[in-house]
């Protein structure tokens, strides 16, 4: 379960004056939420905050029935982070470990038995079609393979919350379909999922919820179209003749 | 955790190893210097000739009786002088070595060790035996004392400066090594933090590595220091009037020159360096963690 109450999130000043939006939402166990919006709308910031990588500066956040707002202890943060799988835009790996070791790392951190780690790792490597790359080092792999490995690493512990940033859903259609079907299976077992994209893709589950960012303040004068549309002033470096280059 | 141990980057820590080796060697030499100088000064002072010779010319009949009573009187008045009447054979041997064959009756000669005021001794002896000739030792100490004072002061100043330099250089070397290791493993730390792992596990691995390098560097410095001290002591043997050095290292380095507590300090130095390296890594990583959060 994820519950946010007036959580401040950064947003591009071209979208919301002041650069901050306050977000409240509630997502039950097993729910799937599509977070959509233009660039700089705060989608990744929302995922980062829920993944406890960005400190919450205000409001209230409850993750898995634990208060996770400001003042969360280091121990509490670690325990929650181990139950969250985050497939980020640019996944980081330990460069001296093979892909298989990197994927197995979350299980190692949970102090699972070596045999269990090997069994689970082999299983998820097969699931994501990484068998031929398992013993390679991450820096020798393509971006798609790294993203596959990131998916495998995020899902190996069958986390209670899965967060997926846009590149995992747009980089490769095959990977996207495979990932979405996997996430649906996990959601049936109670995993809560947040997926961030600029536009919700077609063919998604009708039960999925949708959140469009940015959340605009109540002032009627400010709207996305007015902020991002025709009122753009020409930068000073453009000559009057070049202004036709503007949208 | 073996997996994390394999995952960590191992930047070259040769500068730390070589730097600590050199610093330990220099600090060891500087630490040994005042002790060595003190030891040498004591040895020289011990070998300074403080023997006073009193010759009693054989004039008159009371001379033999005087030769028997004067040592007793001297011992009673100056208890630590150990006044001794030399036997006739010794006197004749001395005189034969001193000049041409002695003709005439042999004088009676007394020797005593005396460091006090020579006029007081002379007054006492002449009050008992006015004809006695007192031969004082050559004035060695008056020439040696200023030289030894300068030597001791210089040695202490050198040791102090070396200690201060080591106190600056060693933490700087350890800080650089700790920072190098932390920076080289920044990505590993970031991955572990994102996965909800304890960073202290990685920090312990870094600390172990830096401590090991610090220990090895300091140990190499000690290994270099021992023969250096041996060679210096061996070179000083003629000056210290010691028998020429032969054989093993223990005979090379005179135990009277360097005390046991100095050897203890030398043997503890690698352990102390390792502990300092271990602490420095934890300090640097903790600061890095604070800045990151």
UniProtKB/TrEMBL annotation, chain A:
Signal peptide: none annotated. GO terms for cellular component: plasma membrane. SUPFAM superfamilies: P-loop containing nucleoside triphosphate hydrolases. It comes from the Bacteria. GO terms for molecular function: ATP binding; ATP hydrolysis activity; transmembrane transporter activity. Keywords: ATP-binding, Cell cycle, Cell division, Nucleotide-binding. InterPro entries: ABC_transporter-like_ATP-bd, ABC_transpr_LolD-like, P-loop_NTPase. Residues 2-240 form the ABC transporter domain. GO terms for biological process: cell division. Pfam families: ABC_tran. This is Cell division ATP-binding protein FtsE. It comes from Parasaccharibacter apium.
From TrEMBL, chain B:
Keywords: Membrane, Transmembrane, Transmembrane helix. The chain crosses the membrane at residues 158-178, 210-240, 260-285. This is FtsX-like permease family protein. It comes from Bombella apis.
């Amino acid at each position: 379960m994820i519950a946010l109450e007036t959580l401040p999130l950064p947003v591009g000043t071209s979208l919301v004056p002041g650069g901050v939006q306050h977000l409240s939402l509630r997502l039950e166990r097993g729910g799937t939420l599509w977070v959509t919006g233009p660039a700089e709308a705060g989608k990744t910031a929302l995922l980062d905050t829920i993944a406890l990588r960005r400190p919450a500066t205000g409001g209230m956040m409850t993750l898995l029935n634990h208060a996770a707002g400001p003042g969360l202890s280091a121990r509490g943060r670690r325990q929650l982070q181990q139950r969250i799988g985050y497939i980020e835009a640019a996944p980081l790996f330990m460069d001296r470990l093979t892909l298989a070791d990197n994927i197995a790392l979350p299980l190692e951190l949970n102090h699972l038995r070596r045999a269990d780690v090997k069994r689970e790792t082999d299983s998820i490597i097969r699931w994501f079609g990484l068998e031929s790359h398992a013993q390679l080092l991450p820096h020798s792999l393509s971006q798609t393979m790294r993203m596959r490995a990131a998916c495998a690493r995020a899902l190996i512990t069958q986390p209670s919350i899965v967060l997926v940033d846009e590149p995992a859903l747009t980089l490769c259609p095959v990977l996207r379909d495979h990932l979405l079907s996997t996430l649906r299976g996990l959601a049936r077992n109670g995993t809560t999922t947040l997926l961030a994209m600029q536009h919700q893709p077609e063919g998604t589950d009708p039960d999925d919820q949708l959140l469009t960012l940015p959340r605009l303040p109540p002032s009627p004068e400010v709207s996305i179209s007015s902020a991002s549309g025709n009122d753009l002033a020409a930068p000073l470096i453009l000559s009057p003749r070049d202004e036709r280059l503007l949208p | 955790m073996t997996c994390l141990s394999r995952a960590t980057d191992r930047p070259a820590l040769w500068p730390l190893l070589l730097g600590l080796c050199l610093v330990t060697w220099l600090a060891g030499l500087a630490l040994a210097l005042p002790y060595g100088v003190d030891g040498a000064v004591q040895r020289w002072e011990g070998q300074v000739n403080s023997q006073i010779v009193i010759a009693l010319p054989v004039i008159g009949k009371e001379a033999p009786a005087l030769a028997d009573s004067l040592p007793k009187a001297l011992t009673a008045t100056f208890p630590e002088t150990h006044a001794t009447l030399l036997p006739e054979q010794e006197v004749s041997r001395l005189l034969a070595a001193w000049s041409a064959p002695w003709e005439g009756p042999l004088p009676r000669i007394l020797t005593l060790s005396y460091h006090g005021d020579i006029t007081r001794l002379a007054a006492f002896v002449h009050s008992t035996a006015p004809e006695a000739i007192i031969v004082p030792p050559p004035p060695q100490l008056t020439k040696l004392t200023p030289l030894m004072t300068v030597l001791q002061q210089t040695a202490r100043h050198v040791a102090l400066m070396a200690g201060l330099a080591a106190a600056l250089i060693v933490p700087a070397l350890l800080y650089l090594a700790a920072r190098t290791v932390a920076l080289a493993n920044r990505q590993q730390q970031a991955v572990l933090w994102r996965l909800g792992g304890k960073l202290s596990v990685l920090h312990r691995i870094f600390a172990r590595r830096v401590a090991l390098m610090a220990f090895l560097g300091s140990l190499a410095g000690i290994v270099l220091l021992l023969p250096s001290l041996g060679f210096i002591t061996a070179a000083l043997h003629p000056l210290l009037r010691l028998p020429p050095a032969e054989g093993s290292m223990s005979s090379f380095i005179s135990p009277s020159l360097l005390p046991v507590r100095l050897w203890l300090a030398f043997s503890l130095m690698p352990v102390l360096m390792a502990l300092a390296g271990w602490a420095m890594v934890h300090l640097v990583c903790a600061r890095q963690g604070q800045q990151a959060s």
